[in-house]
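Give me a protein, keeping tokens residue-aligned:
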Amino acid sequence: MRPGTELPILVIAMMLLPGWALAQGRDAADAYHRMKGREIASRFIGMELTDEIHWAYVFEKGGHLKSVAMGKAGTGTWKVDKDELCLNRPPDEPRCYEVWNSGTKVQLRYEPALPEEGILQKPQKRQ
């Protein structure tokens, strides 16, 4: 490195570092945290989880679940067991998920599948 070039390189690195940290998901506002049982129940009841394109689940009182997947309506049940959200959506097998949250973004995680990611919001009217 030539003498006198250290400062411009340092300035450029300092300017790029915040953008790199955001791209790596290091921003505290975007950090996901695992939800516990009580938090899951209180946040999900009366709400809709949707990917805004393909599917939506409405979590009603009493453990009733309404769903829409690729335009097809369905029903099922939901419950919180320990620290997991358990969904029974016939004809699929019942499945329990870890619930991870970042603001309105929610991920339903179970091994070995990739997370299902959606937005938790007030239920939307659908046709």
Notes: The chain has two domains: 1-31, 32-121. Residues 9 and 59 are 53 Å apart (CA to CA).
